[in-house]
Design brief:
Largest sheet: 5 strands, mixed
Distance between the termini: 42 Å
Structural class: alpha+beta
Number of domains: 3
Shape: globular
Helix content: 25-40%
Number of strands: 21
Radius of gyration: 23 Å
Strand order of the largest sheet: 12-7-1-14-13
Strand content: 25-35%
């Protein structure tokens, strides 16, 4: 388990520094320094040890050689895809990095009254945003993609000067991301901007489970990622690579936080709702209907959907576009599941194989033959 403590904010470079300080390989970032094209003529990534208020931390400074005023969402997607290809990123890294970028674009589009395809990013439009997003998941993969937990994000206070003028902290994109993804925010500990949209988007898209306090864990390694500013408190993000307590990771189960959507519908037929369920299978972890009674005893359907945070927009678009609802409820929930593998085994008395799903949690094991294989004549 990896526990992040953004007590003095979060940014892309702080996250990179924390993961490197934990022991992630710097070599995973080296291809991003050599990348050229689409307006980028190489990038220098400076990694050094520094001291913040007596704490040793790793500082990451990304210095791309580029000339740009702003980049559109479409241009940033192309840049991410090209950089991921050049770095030979895995499909999982590509998927997670893409989800983080989409969250960032959606938040910026919401703030500016635009859409994710045409919105233009100024500060976040630089190639260093791509390095932060792609680099974070490359380093996380190097650590084995451990389950993530995070404490609430401290955002600072006061105002900050941007390309759009003087803005209140948290800046609008950070507030939009937090509202969209259920990221808990706290003010302080300084009156400066210390949480960036990129940092919050990475936390939101990482599947991190947000906790109010540090859970019961045994730290195995501790890393500190340094921010660029100096305050009376250490401007660092701490990361703990941990072994969970007896109720958690030691048993090998997966802990994650997902979103539960709920909507009541009283003016659609069962056939229409069945189509909605079929469409939801493309983006949701689970979806089901419950029959209930509403106002004046009217029968209705209660639709519940469980989905990952990065699929919020897809679920929302489907609910608004394919059902009669004009609003829905959602909240973060914890999900705990058994780890499973699938084996091919010979069917007793027959010359064919069946797939068997084997689920395990501690001393508990369950086996189940795939339903379709029971009747497959092959």
């Amino acid at each position: 388990m990896l526990v992040l403590e953004p007590h003095c904010g979060v940014s892309g470079d702080m996250l990179l520094g924390a993961l490197l300080d934990l022991g992630a390989s710097r070599a995973r970032l080296e291809p991003l320094e050599r990348f050229e094209g689409l307006g980028v003529a190489g990038t220098e990534i400076r990694i050094a040890k520094t001291v913040k208020q007596g704490l040793s931390a790793t500082c990451v400074d990304v210095l791309p050689k580029e000339h740009y005023h702003a980049r559109s969402g479409e241009e940033l997607r192309g840049l991410l895809d090209a950089a991921a290809t050049f770095a030979d990123a895995s499909e999982e890294v590509r998927r997670r990095a893409g989800a983080a970028l989409e969250l960032l674009l959606a938040a910026e589009a919401q703030v500016h009254g635009s859409d994710p395809e045409s919105v233009h990013l100024h500060e976040a439009g630089s190639f260093d945003t791509i390095v932060d997003v792609l680099g974070f998941f490359l380093l996380l993969e190097d650590l084995g993609f451990p389950p993530l937990c995070s404490l609430p994000v401290r955002v600072g206070g006061g105002t900050v000067r941007t390309a759009h003028g003087l803005l209140a902290v948290p800046v609008p994109a950070v507030a939009a991301l937090a509202a969209r993804c259920g990221v808990p925010l706290e003010g302080g500990p300084v009156r400066k901007e210390i949480a960036t949209p990129t940092g919050v988007a990475l936390l939101a898209s990482s599947g991190a489970r947000f906790l109010q306090d540090l859970p019961s864990v045994v730290p195995l390694r501790v890393g500190y990622g340094a921010g660029r500013k100096d305050f009376s408190v250490p401007n660092v993000l701490r990361a703990l690579l941990c072994r969970g307590d007896a109720e958690g990771e030691e048993k090998g189960d997966a802990l994650e936080e997902v979103l539960l959507f709920e909507v009541s519908i009283d003016d659609m037929t069962g056939e229409e709702m069945g189509r909605v369920l079929a469409l939801l299978q493309e983006v949701a972890l689970e979806s089901h209907l419950v029959q209930a009674l509403g106002k004046k005893g009217r029968p209705l359907f209660l639709l519940r959907v469980l989905a990952k945070r990065e699929h919020f927009d897809s679920v929302a678009d489907l609910l608004f576009g394919e059902t009669s609802t004009i609003g829905f409820r959602y909240w973060p929930v914890g999900r705990r599941k058994m780890e499973y593998t699938v084996e091919r085994r010979p069917m007793k008395g027959e010359e064919r194989f069946v797939r068997v799903k084997i689920s395990r949690l501690g001393d508990v094991a369950k086996e189940k033959v795939e339903f379709d294989d029971r009747f497959d004549p092959r």
